[in-house]
Here is the input.
Amino acid sequence: MHFKRLTALALATCCIAAVTPAIADTIQAPQGLDQSATLLLTDLPVFAPANGLAQSIIPDASTFAAPKAAVATVASAQDAQEADAVDGDDDDSLVAAATARLAGHVDGHAREALLSFAMKLRDIRYHRGGRTPTAGFDCSGFVRYVFAKSIGLDLPTNSASQFLAGLSVKRTEMKTGDLVFFRTRGKAISHVGIYIDNGQFIHSPSAGKTVRVDSLNEAYWSKHFAGAKRPEGIAKI
Here is the structure.
């Protein structure tokens, strides 16, 4: 047993003796170090990181190209969706054409835009104080909504103030988009509608009814008719 151990030890010693000079030849000892230090250096393992390991931690430029392409794709999709939203707008060309916002400077399609937009609101229920299609309309709320949404013109909030703000128009000279007023309760202005043509007007009548077209020649409306006014915003067209 002792003989085997001695034999193995001798072989190990021979191997070390054979390898050590080769390693020592590859290492240049700094000047000024003595021989013992040089021998110490030969005993240290040499660490040389693999090139592949160093390169593996550097991101490839191609990895950044995919996100950019994805962003471009998303942007294109968003643009398409926005274009679809515009194309899907249910306002017709007349309503879209009436884009001016200042009184007295509304474009020449304003009257057609008013009528087109107003007719789309037929059958919406009457609601006292209502100002939107969802809530319903009272008479002045309907008129104000149509003017604001079709040509961007703000009118006063009730029929009496709308009457005072407009320019007087003779019944024989009324045009599409003029406002027609009524006294349905005493002497005060209490109702308003939008004139269409041929004696007809569109309005939100009263509780239990919906936005509809009526005629000024009907007995009730003829009896209570108070006059017509032209909002200043469309006075020049």
